[in-house]
Specification:
The chain is of the alpha+beta class. Helices cover 28% and strands 34% of the residues. It starts with a helix and ends in a 15-residue tail after the last strand.
Length: 183
């Protein structure tokens, strides 16, 4: 790989984090986040993608990404959906309300998160990140914008975790597409 290509890849990898970090001043009274805080919050979102895509440990790896009192919900057409709170309920959400990870409706989909904005807050940080699903309906080339997440992050003894996460579907989108059919 030539040096110019290597530098381009390195710049593309680091620039989004630098731009987001440079643009944040924090709300009045909000403590500033360190560079490591931004990295840790981005890693939390990356672990979320892996946990939801792979549905490991029957959904409990996903549940571990939330604070003890953390919760998840979805909003469709501006209406709040079920609130999933507590380890067992969050693991159930990661399984798509199925008994096992083998049955999740999005099996085979890869979730990609883009345009992540992190803002310091008095209680930690808030964030917004777009969701793109790849591999819908069993077609590895089918891609769909599936709305965005509105997050509240909290720093705990276990590191940064979700205090809350709301999946807001794209306008006029009643539901997201499925993955490959379970065998």
């Amino acid at each position: 790989m030539d040096m110019r290509r290597l530098l381009t890849i390195a710049l593309i990898s680091v620039l989004p984090m630098a731009v987001v970090h440079a643009g944040q001043t924090g709300a009045a009274g909000a403590p500033k986040l360190t560079t490591q805080d931004y990295i840790d919050i981005q890693q939390l979102n990356a672990r979320y993608a892996v946990a939801i895509d792979e549905c490991t440990n029957n959904g409990y790896d996903y549940a571990a990404l939330y604070a003890d009192d953390g919760w998840f919900s979805a909003s469709r057409d501006g209406k709040a959906g079920t609130k999933w709170q507590g380890r067992d309920r969050l693991a159930e959400a990661a399984r798509g309300s199925m008994k096992s990870c083998d049955e999740v409706p999005w099996k085979g989909i890869k979730h990609m998160y883009v345009n992540h904005v992190i803002v310091p807050s008095a209680d930690g940080a808030t964030g917004r990140i777009d969701l793109v699903g790849i591999g819908l309906d069993g077609d590895p080339h089918k891609v769909e914008h599936q709305g965005h997440y509105e997050d509240v992050y909290v720093k705990t003894a276990k590191g940064w975790l979700f205090k809350s996460r709301i999946h807001v579907l794209a306008p006029r989108q009643a539901a997201v597409s499925s993955g490959s059919k379970p065998r």
